[in-house]
Known about the structure:
By secondary structure, this protein is mainly α. The chain has helices at residues 3-16, 19-34, 55-69, 71-80, 87-91, 98-126, 143-172, 177-190, 197-215, 232-246, 254-260, and strands at residues 44-46, 131-133.
Amino acid sequence: MPINRRVAAEVWIVLGLSLGQSAVYALVAIAARLTAGTPLAEQTATLNASRSERPYLDLVYQLLGIGFALVPVALALYLLSDHGRSAVRLLGLDRGRPGRDLGHGVALAAAIGIPGLAFYALGRALGITVEVQASALDTHWWTVPVLLLAAFQNGLLEEVIAVGYLYQRTRELGWDRVRFVVASSLLRGSYHLYQGIGPFFGNVVMGVVFSWFYTSPRFAAGTGEERRGRVAPLVVAHTLLDVVAFVGYALVPAEWREALGIR
């Protein structure tokens, strides 16, 4: 099998085990929602649902879900770590620039967070976005730690697969930067379609910003041919956004949450 066909097959397999699979389910979900006879604005999507009425069994299920969701990340890193190179360093997940990574991550979260909330509010107003229930977990001592882990899991899975891994492999397939940005952004939007049309467009915009940042020479690390993007700031930004969505929403006044359609 020619190397480019082998790489393409590998990409489809990795996506089929992770975000591509989620995208297919999301497409089916939005089709079901649009044909349900109930307007999207009157439907609800739950991001973190309880899996058992027994608290400790629920905790086990939550931790298993988080752990197994990260297996595709381990697979992608393993596949990129050929010929003795470190995939962690290749994708910029190492601790080489902690201060800059954190600063860039916070800046990206701020740049995406406010417009993202505006997209959601607009979608709700137009009736093309479902009501998002950020967390349906009962209140236990482990609820907040699990939500924080879930936020980190989302950030690591999506940014490593949809940005870092996909960029490395599409370069080997001869793709240019623009083609990668479009593909990565559409992928990101597609697996959020279960939340409605509004979140699709909002996440496409987020995908454009994140993938453009990752491929920008201005923010690359290293020198000469060793210059490469870093996924770490994207993971930081994504984790912060999800922490606010999963945990911080409870600090928002009830009347504000009601106006935005957040529960």
